[in-house]
Specification:
By secondary structure, the protein is an alpha/beta fold. It contains eleven helices and 19 strands. The chain has helices spanning 21-37, 57-73, 88-91, 95-98, 131-138, 146-155, 273-277, 300-304, 317-325, 339-351, 357-374, and strands at 2-6, 14-15, 18-19, 42-46, 77-81, 103-106, 116-118, 121-126, 164-170, 172-174, 195-197, 206-210, 216-218, 220-225, 242-249, 252-259, 266-271, 286-291, 311-315. A six-stranded mixed beta sheet has the order 6-5-4-1-15-16. A six-stranded mixed beta sheet has the order 7-8-9-12-14-13, with no helix packed on it. Strands 17-18-19 form a three-stranded parallel beta sheet. A hairpin with a 2-residue loop joins strand 7 (116-118) and strand 8. Helix 1 (21-37) packs parallel to helix 2 (57-73). The longest helix is centred in the C-terminal third of the chain and has 18 residues, at 357-374. The N and C termini lie far apart (89 Å).
Length: 375
């Protein structure tokens, strides 16, 4: 048995008002080509198919074209679950009819998980669900956390672990190590109650996870987040996005990560304004610039866009750290200081350097002018 595992496609996502749909459609075409060229018959899509519960018509068309090509033209099977971004009702529309064509969608929590059996492997589809879904379905008001709900739900199922079993789910599964997270992910709950211990899924031969955007294993190699389709925030610029090509023979699992190549990527440059302006031009990718200058550079965005058309973000980490580090509260005895001395003290706390003589002369002139005006 060989299959490809992907998740967190987020069709229709906007990045700083930039529509990524054309890039996403091209990446899905790359996945189609990979499946066809390598004669792989099964694709797993582990949730967050759309970026919003009410997707745009364009996003729906992209998914429709992708699935139609895979299933009707190339005769592949697709196993899909709903993520926390998806509308279960919209994602599962006509799923009963499409099942006969090779598209298996599970968007709602079912009382009993019935496996989809392909080449002797049991695939269990477990969509995203909140503890409240479990409480409603099983009339159990004792369930509070995601851990409680997930554990109670699995205990109700009848798994044959002598067989080869693959679990597909979209939850925050974590192990002993800290999970690498991204700004583009949605926090499911406050206070960490969304975390589910990895030990609950360890009996499965392979666990195809969705929700976390950084590709990574959890506890062991066969429990994996495939990661998002592409970089969806600038804190992901060091992540190599990929798909997981999985092979299972006699319950022995092997896999490889296959890199995706987006038409446009997210890149971050860091340095002083002068250093950044000396870099090679890039009028193609989406750019974030981290300016290490200790003062605001006037009209920086205009200058930078002559070299980088798609600059979406400029930050000044040194200024932010200085503002956090420096206490803007006046020192003891401030009431004895002159207006100029008080301003100079404030200036140094904010800027991190003493006010220069030229600036001091300007401030003195302004203050003197105000005094004259009051008089």
């Amino acid at each position: 048995m060989r299959f490809v595992h992907i998740s967190d496609i987020h069709l229709g996502k906007l990045l700083f008002q930039q529509n990524l749909l054309e890039i996403q459609a091209d990446l899905l075409k790359q996945i189609t080509n990979y499946l066809v060229e390598n004669e792989i018959d099964v694709l797993i899509m582990a949730g967050d198919i759309y970026d919003r519960s009410v997707p745009s018509n364009e996003a729906v068309e992209v998914l429709n074209d992708f699935l139609s090509s895979l299933i009707l033209k190339h005769h592949k099977k697709v196993l899909m679950i709903a993520g926390n971004h998806d509308s279960a009702a919209r994602l599962s529309f006509a799923s009963g009819l499409l099942k006969h064509e090779g598209l298996y969608i599970e968007a709602h929590l079912q009382k009993e998980m019935k496996p989809i059996i392909i080449d002797g492997v049991n695939f269990y589809l477990l969509p995203f669900f909140k503890p409240s879904y479990y409480r409603y379905l099983f009339e159990d008001e004792n369930i509070i956390t995601y851990q409680d709900a997930f554990e109670a739900y699995l205990k109700r199922q009848n798994f044959d672990f002598k067989a080869t079993n693959v679990l597909i789910t979209h939850q925050f599964i974590a192990g002993n190590k800290e999970v690498v997270r991204s700004e583009s992910e949605v926090v499911l709950s406050v206070g960490g109650s969304e975390i589910i211990d990895v030990s609950l899924v360890e009996p499965f031969d392979y666990v195809a996870l969705g929700h976390i955007h950084a590709p990574q294993k959890i506890a062991k190699e066969t429990i994996r987040y495939s990661g998002s389709l592409m970089r969806y925030s600038f804190d992901e610029v060091l992540q190599q996005k990929s798909i997981v090509d999985v092979t299972i023979v006699d319950k022995k699992v092997s896999f490889k990560l296959v890199a995706l190549k987006p038409k446009q990527n997210l890149i971050k440059f860091s340095g002083s304004f002068d250093e950044i302006m000396n870099l090679e031009d890039n009028h193609h990718d989406f750019i974030a610039v981290e300016l290490l200058d200790t003062m605001i550079v006037p009209n920086a965005i205009d200058y930078l866009r002559t070299k980088f058309t798609n600059v979406l973000q400029i930050t000044y980490p040194n200024l932010i750290s200085q503002q956090i580090k420096n206490n803007t509260k006046a020192d003891q005895g401030f009431e004895k200081l002159s207006s100029l001395e008080l301003f100079a003290q404030f200036y140094q706390k904010i800027k991190g350097v003493p006010i220069d003589d030229k600036s001091k002369a300007i401030i003195t002139k302004i203050m003197k002018g105000e005094d004259d005006h009051v008089a």
